[in-house]
Amino acid sequence: MNLRTFITSAIFSISLVFSQFNYQVSGGYYDRAGNTDYKYYNAGFSVTSYGDINFGGITVKDSEFLLSVDKNFSTYAGQDYEDDQNILFLFDLWANGRFSPFIIAENSYDTYRGIKDRTNFGLGAKYRVFGDMLSVSAAFLSESEEVLGKGRVYEYVDYGDSLGLYAFSDHPGIKPSTYSRISIRPKLKLPIGENFYFQSEYYYKPAGDDVLTDWKNKFVIKTAEEWLNIEISYNFKSDTQPAPKYFMTYSDKFSHTATFEKPGKGTVTFDQNPEYAKAAGYGDYYLTEYKKDDTTLRVGFSISF
Questions:
Q1: If I label 46, which of 9, 12, 38, 65 is the partner at 20 to 30 A Cα–Cα?
Q2: Residue 129 Cα distances to 64, 74, 299, angstroms
Q3: For the whole model, what pTM was predicted?
């Protein structure tokens, strides 16, 4: 069963036993024209439900259902620039208790960071350290990740006095990699008076030497209308082993004496050698990687109904 089928089945099943769903829509837009032609769009949608679930004569108290979708897209000079999406499913048993086990599934992609598909599924538990204000969660995740390869192979040739770019091609065979990953997440919820709310959560996800971190911060300003809020969010992501941005190789159409290590008068840089690339399952390539850190600051709105 794939993630889409699983989530669809979960929504249908939960809708039969929960008494109420709450919906929230958020969005943002940025447009710059003239010397720079840049447009950015953000949209989010979430479904949540809290309540008691009846299984025959057994009632499970205070459980939580969450399904959220977040999408970011931008264009630069009329061409696609950023494109990322995240889908999260969470079912938390006894969500308001001191200790609560949960099931989590997540699917995402991020073309700006070279991720074609990243899917994980896992089991975990949450512990409330200080009421609803501070909690710590931990989960064991089974993860699959595939990086982008179309048009990402850069073929170089020897131009006599230097090594230079000659052509682009597709990677012939990128396959998904699988991991077992641990996820640890402290979360802080802090109401500030009646009209302000701050939330901060930090995800630490090691899988051997590959460590993902994600620090999410959200500041909510309530308006005079109960259904409308203004949201300011800041996100800091880090990946100790970022995806390849380019797969660099020598063109098989020409011989060469210049190399990536000694490119002659040209300037050729790379981050990883073929030994690293082979061990990672990418093949005999030099790699230029994406940057390890990425930040996002966003101002938008949310509508609840």
A1: 38
A2: 19, 40, 30
A3: 0.83
The domain that holds 261 is classified in CATH as 2.40.160.40
- At 297, the amino acid letter reads L
In tens, the pLDDT along 134-179 reads 999 999 999 999 999 999 999 999 998 899 999 999 999 898 999 8
Beta strands in the chain (DSSP E): 22-32, 38-55, 58-76, 79-92, 99-110, 115-130, 134-147, 153-158, 163-169, 177-192, 196-207, 210-222, 228-239, 244-250, 286-289, 293-304
Locus of tokens 């997540």: 106
Query: What is residue 9's predicted lDDT score, i.e. its pLDDT?
Result: 57
Which spans in the chain are helix H? 3-17, 274-279
Number of structural domains the chain divides into = 1
Task: Point out the residues of the chain with pLDDT beneath 50.
Answer: 16-17, 19
